[in-house]
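Sample pair:
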Amino acid sequence: MTARTKRNRLFAAGVVAASVSLVLTGCSSSKSSSGSSTGANPSASIPAVTADPALAALVPADVKSAGKVVVATDASYAPNEFKDDKGAIVGMDVDMANAIAKKLGLTADVQNATFDAIIPGITGNKYTMSLSSFTDTKEREASVDMVTYFSAGTGAAVKKGNPDKIDPNDLCGKKVAVQTGTTQAKEITDTINPACVKAGKPPVPNDGDKFDLQTDVTQALVSGRDQVMLADSPVVDYAIKQTNGQLEKVGAVSDTAPYGVVLQKDSPLSKAVQGAVQSLMADGTYKAILEKWGVQAGAIDTSVVNGATS
């Protein structure tokens, strides 16, 4: 029960580009893509990736003839996938998509998409695959394949100094900012608020203040509209560092689970992608990508097809 789930956003490219610049840098665009204060280094080089003939041989004929994989991602979730100051889609998932494609002798055509349209786009043949911070869940595995490549949990952030004395283990009555459709939002509705009511405490107002963009979630906390925000652990870490000390993490990361590359159910490409991810782990490319974006804490050792834990 973690990470992005059915995130439903009204996405506008120009708005998101501006939001990342404004919100994540504390109203200054000077550091929006430099990564200098994040532990990330977006300008870092990644080892050159060459095709693996054995893995390329697993690629279905139609994909091989196209010479590319069409990769969907929802580019508003820094540092995993977002737009830089020039409007280019960048991030850990984008670099992973490009590396996977090269390992298979292909190129990656990364396309921006609203999160809740991605899986229908995969099943409807609009996209070949997706890297967009999708948690691998048994529910998703019923309709698509998920190739694991990362691990993340839920983190919480508050204003610097925690002025409201927020305890992430007791959010009853607190104003909580979350992104629409995420597991974090579902956790408030399905678990936190019922527990609050059972304990005779006030629930989280509105089942959480929900926003279509993660950048707006961060801004709600920075502005003081909300007292705490919940999001994927790497996203919380990145937001804290990019807001120039205005926020801090509170409590431990919870509900850790794997991210998965989304592909059509029972696609022969799934085995090829899993092999590519494992090969990138073995040759050091995977480590370099994660270190480039400062998310190496989420590294895993083994990639599997459909490795959901819940």
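Confidence is low (pLDDT under 50) at residues 5-37.
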